[in-house]
Amino acid sequence: MKLDVNGKPVEVNVPADTPLLWVLREEVGLTGTKFGCGKALCGACTVHVDGKPKRSCVTAVGDCTAQPIITIEGLATDKELHPVQQAWLEENVPQCGYCQAGQIMTAVILLRTKPSPTDAEIDDAMSANLCRCGTYPRIRKAVHRAAALLQGAK
Amino acid sequence: MIDRRGFLSGVLAGAGVLTLAACGGGGKAMRISHADQTGELLANTLISVLATGRIALIVNKAEIGQGVSTGYATLAAEEIGVPVDHVDVHLAGSMNELRQSGNMQITGGSTSTTEGFKFVRHAAAAAREMLVGAAAAQWGVPVRDCTVSDGHVVHGTRRAAFGDLTKLAARRDVPEHPTLKAAKDFTLIGKTNKRVDGRAKIDGSAVFGIDHTVPNMVHAFMIHGPVYGSRATRVDVGNAKSRPGVIDVLTVPSGVAIVADKYWQARAAAAELKITWDQGTVAGLDTTQMATAMRTYTKAGASVVDKGNPGKAIKSAEAKVAAVYEAPYLSHAPLEPQNAIASVTGSRCEIWAPTQSPTITQAFVSEAIGIDFDDVKVHVLTAGGGFGRRAIADVCAEAAVISKRVKRPVKVIWTRESDMTQAYYRPVFAVHATGGVTQGKIAGAQIHCISQSIPLSSGTLFAAALSGLPGPIRGRVIDAALAIFSTNSFGDIFATEGLGNTPYDFRAYEVAASPVQNKLPVAFWRAVGNSVTGFAMESFVDELCVAAKQDPFAFRRAMLPEKSRQRRVLDALEKLSTWSTPPAKGIGRGLARHFAFETEVGEVAEVEMIDGRIRVKRVYCVVDCGLAVNPDIIRAQMEGGIIFGLSAALDQEITLVDGVVQQTNYDTFPSLRMHEAPEVIVEILPSDEPPTGVGEPGLPPIAAAVANAIHTLTGVRLRRMPLQRAWNERGAA
To answer: Which element (helix H / strand E) includes B188?
Structure first.
């Protein structure tokens, strides 16, 4: 089975119903995408498939062939962080950090569709991602900051 | 790139070099030979200066998100004289020389910064004096004329980089009493906010326990029974063993393990199995029945505090309050499920796990596979949340049992469902309180705390876990455990913490405690007993305040000593929350404060009811935690403690029906999400006192602050957590 992960072709030999999460973690060796609940309840496993946020713990790898897959490891370009990652650092968002890959992947898509999101739009987009450490107030600030960074970069 | 190979192979791979290099311990020959071979100065157990001038710091704590690696790096950098980003943090594994917290290696009780403020600075200052001594001797100048700056020793216009001084410094004795910097000279403490682990946690490169691998490792997928403690009595493996990658299917004490090359291969094979289970150790347990029994319990408890004659004072008081405050079992539900790697070879075992306690891990593993305590070597990995659950090492013991059977390193990753149903919950509580007020002032109070005891639960468990050990070691560990876990008549400091040691002067005051006993293990959960006693005490005080017809700030102040941390925090909080200005229509405000882990926190919650849903809009928080080492991390811990506590206060409970846990994942055990997270406004009071706890103290006041706000808004007093359920069922029989 051929996959396109972070812009690179990858060949894996797994049953088509294997969740994308475990293919990324065990076959491709990208462990930045996290297992939290296994039932699309927490969002820790969020990746981009064909430009859309997907819960990789319930997404069969067979449904992802021939589509670009982007994980947290594929966000930064060369030596530069993605503006969303940069904003996360500047707002000191992470505590344990375990949910943050999923949070960041969700926020990147939000800002692609809504470059200047309101608080209500941030609530809508981000409330599917759980954080047990309680970093939500900082995530909100970081999304606003990332919006400003992205617009400044234009 | 930084070459740490010498350091990593010499120090982190085993305790040998580290033992020899330990503070003033006759390890000079070893220190010199190591420095000559590698250019590294092993100054003491915690600090090494690398040839590059970077500092390798052993952090004898778990990084569970609380920021201890940044905190300790700040303390070390301040004393040795380098920027914080010149410090590389390494989490310490099990090592008897590093038993610093009640003779254990454990991360809990919000003690890390308090402890590290002494020993991390001491270790770094010792290393600094060796470097300065080396430079001064080389230059033939007095030590007192030399200073350190940015990783260099400086004398006039001469500068020597730390990395160039390591071989000379290794030849000097380790100072036993190094001089610490005076607080007025701090340039990093109080000013450092950037987390040392921040970058790795936003680019996917941080290696958590679940991400770690060791050579030749296989995976085991665990199936646990329907009731805690169930054992598999019959296993029909079906075609599981012929599935791709599957190596074996094993029945172990805690359940059934499917072992395979990959995690998902093992997980996918689980559907093949048909398992018959026995009834488990908590068959029949019903939390509704337990709660009723605890609510209506009338027998006297063991006395914890007995001051004056509150019974008489309450009887003759003008107005009386009698109430029962209740709290359920809670799961910690850290986002990273419990996991561990174990490798058993002969009579030895290595563990790699995101654990909060190498010592407790050694105890669990040595008991599970019958080897000596000191033959369990624990490597501590970054944890995706802990909240107390990772101070219990059941998953490590399970991995060790499986590794011993398959004779290979084994990684076990629990499902969310196992993480949530395999016990070690925050204990249930019913706090019975009666009190009286006369002429607007407190007359007396009596509290009877009924709770399942962590010492009785874990004490039994600890004794069992240690029973396989040789006498001297067992005695040593049991002594250490008991020193932490037991101090009063029924051996429980946790059930009554926050009640027995309240700073309130109730004039006449009694606290008693009674243990609830069953076989469902309970354990530490963020803020431990304070997570409930803060709710009970501050709800009770609020009810007394209403009965006394007083302002919540004024009523509390009258019971607290002048010039106390409590009064300072209340004064600041009254201003911060603009308490004197009435809230907008539809908003209720509630005040609560609590002293825990030597830190005082006061909170005002602003609450509204939207279609029957309790919504906390904003929380004002004032904290006095002594000297603030990393102010923004303290703010983050207050925000996090409040939001973690709010999830529990509003919605979370673990219930059992006929021994079966009813909550299995984040849908039935909900946590607060972005759209319901309040704005949190934190003020840290300036202080020159030594630092005190911050990881837990933000949590205890929040539930009462919300319940008190609901009362001012609606007139309804909610005395049972979770509050949303209590609201929904208010008035019901």
So the answer is: none
Structurally, chain A folds into a number of domains equal to 2
Same domain, B439 and B561: yes
pLDDT tens, position by position, B11-47: 333 333 343 344 334 489 999 999 999 999 999 999 9
In a domain, B63, yes or no: yes
Please check whether residues A138 and A101 belong to one and the same domain: yes
Structural domains counted in chain B: 3
Test mutation, A13, A96, A131, chain B, max B CBs within 10 A:
A96
Angle between helix B68-80 and B112-139 (nearest 10): 30
Identify whether B309 is part of a domain: yes
pLDDT beyond 80 at B457: no
B306 and B274 share a domain? Answer: no
Q: Alpha carbon of B251 to those of B271, B283, B461, B650, B674: distances in Å?
A: 16, 21, 22, 40, 42
Residue B101 vs residue A120, higher pLDDT: A120
Co-location of A62 and A119 in the same domain: no
Separation in Å, CA of B672 to nearest CA in chain A: 8
Lowest mean pLDDT among B3-7, B387-391, B466-470, B648-652: B3-7
Helix (H, G, I), strand (E, B) or coil at B41: strand
Q: Tell me, yes or no, whether A9 lies in a domain.
A: yes
Q: Which of B725, B590, B610 minimizes the C-alpha distance to B670?
A: B725
CA distances from residue B357 to B61, B70, B695 in whole angstroms, order as listed: 8, 19, 16
pLDDT in tens, B284-295: 999 999 999 999
Distance CA B225, CA B227 (A): 6
Give the end of a domain, one of A72, A92, A115: A72
Taking the C-alpha atoms of residue A110 and residue A120, their distance in angstroms, rounded to an integer, is 12
| Reported confidence tier of residue B517, pLDDT bands at 50, 70, 90 | confident
A89 vs B202, B382, B642: nearest CB: B202
Centroid of chain to Cα B95: 20
pTM beyond 0.90, yes or no: yes
Q: What is the ipTM of this complex?
A: 0.98
Query: Do B606 and B716 fall into the same domain?
Result: yes
- In a mutational test of the B interface, the residue from A24, A99, A136, A143 whose CB has the highest number of chain B CBs within 10 Å is A136
pLDDT at B458: 64
Show the domain range for A26: 2-72
Looking at the fold, whether B260 and B305 belong to one and the same domain comes out as: no
Q: What is the pLDDT of residue B329?
A: 98
Largest CA distance in chain A: 45
- Chain A residue numbers with beta carbons less than 8 Å from the beta carbon of B267 are 22
Q: CA B422, CA B410: separation in Å to the nearest integer?
A: 20
Token digits of residue B721: 């957590």
**How big is the CA angle at B690 (ends B685 and B693), to the nearest 5 degrees?**
70
- Is the pLDDT at A70 greater than 50? The verdict is yes
Residue A43's pLDDT is what? 98
Nearest to B640 among A19, A38, A135 (CB): A135
- Give B244's contacts in chain A (Cβ within 8 Å): 15
What are the phi and psi torsion angles at A16 (to 5°)? -65, -20
Q: Based on the domain organization, do B247 and B105 belong to the same domain?
A: no
Range of the domain at B127: 5-185
Query: What percent of chain B is predicted at pLDDT more than 70?
Result: 91
> Is residue B419 assigned to a domain?
no
> Does residue B194 belong to any structural domain of this protein?
no
Residues B156 and B217 in one domain: no
A15 inside 8 A of chain B by CB = yes
Q: B306 and chain A: CB distance < 8 Å anywhere? A: no
